[in-house]
Amino acid sequence: MEYLTFALAKGRLAKKSLELFEKIGITMEEMKDPNTRKLIFVNEERKIKMFLAKASDVPTYVEYGAADIGVVGKDTLLEEGRRLYEVMDLGFGKCRMCVCGPKSAGELLRHQELIRVASKYPHIAKDYFYNQKHQTVEIIKLNGSVELAPIVGLSEVIVDIVETGSTLRENGLEVLEEICPLSARMVVNQVSMKMENERITQLLYNIKPLL
Ligand SMILES: Nc1ncnc2c1ncn2[C@@H]1O[C@H](COP(=O)(O)OP(=O)(O)OP(=O)(O)O)[C@@H](O)[C@H]1O
Ligand SMILES: O=P(O)(O)OC[C@H]1O[C@H](OP(=O)(O)OP(=O)(O)O)[C@H](O)[C@@H]1O
């Protein structure tokens, strides 16, 4: 039997992803060691390999078939736009992609003004403003702490993830428009879906009652 390879997004989603696989008997003991420098882990009995990767790289590994299966946030899938099958909403890592800013920026949005939009997600921001709202905007790519942008005058609004809303509240910002709900998804390589259909279908069948 060939190995099935899993690519999991590291960071926030990693623990829940590993717990989910543990519940269906896929344990990767060495992976839990916080001091390990190893990158890939093998479960010989189940013929499974698993690795953690930067979230934005997970869809790339899956599209190219370096991983058969991936677990990553919907935000990353939308932003990366890779060719793969999104097969399951895993129900954790729930949050929302939103347009946020100071209350006063609501008026600029309503009047479709040429505003600056800062985001870690330039493709999502562009798709939302150009294709859904038909509003011309300037998109400024940032890599983190995006809430700073409207505070220091880099942009009028941001497109970012909102979970509890604490970051917005503590910085005098609010949700102005909601783009879409987000959560962790399971994705599958398009060739693997055919070649390993039985094992992948069984995997989904085992996970479904746990969600
Ligand atoms: N409050 C939240 N903030 C950010 N991401 C969240 C939140 N809640 C759930 N998520 C999910 O977790 C993923 C982000 O994980 P994490 O925060 O570890 O990455 P990150 O900080 O964006 O990493 P990096 O910028 O280093 O790639 C998102 O893709 C999203 O799907
Ligand atoms: O609604 P909340 O519960 O406050 O969560 C949302 C915040 O958390 C994330 O940031 P993260 O901590 O990943 O840091 P970053 O901004 O540097 O990516 C996200 O980008 C928001 O800033």
From TrEMBL:
Q: Which CDD domains match?
A: PBP2_HisGs
| Gene Ontology CC: one annotated term | cytoplasm
Listed GO molecular functions?
ATP binding; ATP phosphoribosyltransferase activity
- Describe the reaction catalysed, as an equation: 1-(5-phospho-beta-D-ribosyl)-ATP + diphosphate = 5-phospho-alpha-D-ribose 1-diphosphate + ATP
Q: What processes in GO biological process is this protein linked to? A: L-histidine biosynthetic process
Looking at the Swiss-Prot or TrEMBL record, what is one Pfam family this protein matches?
HisG
Q: Which UniProt keywords apply?
A: Amino-acid biosynthesis, ATP-binding, Cytoplasm, Glycosyltransferase, Histidine biosynthesis, Nucleotide-binding, Transferase
Q: Tell me if Membrane is a UniProt keyword of this record.
A: no
Cited function: Catalyzes the condensation of ATP and 5-phosphoribose 1-diphosphate to form N'-(5'-phosphoribosyl)-ATP (PR-ATP). Has a crucial role in the pathway because the rate of histidine biosynthesis seems to be controlled primarily by regulation of HisG enzymatic activity.
- Record text about domains: Lacks the C-terminal regulatory region which is replaced by HisZ.
Task: Fill in the subunit field for this protein.
Answer: Heteromultimer composed of HisG and HisZ subunits.
Protein family membership: Belongs to the ATP phosphoribosyltransferase family. Short subfamily.
Protein name according to UniProt: ATP phosphoribosyltransferase
